[in-house]
Amino acid sequence: MQIFLLLLPKDSPLSILLVEDNIVNQKVALKILEKLGYKADVANNGLEAVENAKLKDYDLIFMDLLMPKLSGIDATKMILEIFGGKKNPKIIAMTADTIMNDQGSLPECRYV
Fold first, then answer.
1. What CATH number corresponds to the domain at position 14?
2. 70 contacts 46 by C-beta, under 8 angstroms
3. pTM (2 decimals)?
4. What domain range is 48 assigned to?
């Protein structure tokens, strides 16, 4: 995450959405973004992410994969469907799961 954002100018007016259900992970991600000069809206689950995307055009969405109510992958599919190919936000998958393997959700991210 840091490498990608370091390539952007700090004064770039990016609209960012952080989708994360864990409060500690939210705080860490928001602090990293803040240190890089960015602010982000927060959605606590996939359903909130979809609702936020309907209300605001985000340039960048950091999407947790494993969340209650609606997974990050399903939320991503719905958000991309909403935009219908017009100015799709860049959606970056993230997870704190240390045991994800080839049978998990990670490979599916490539095909969304």
1. 3.40.50.2300
2. yes
3. 0.80
4. 2-109
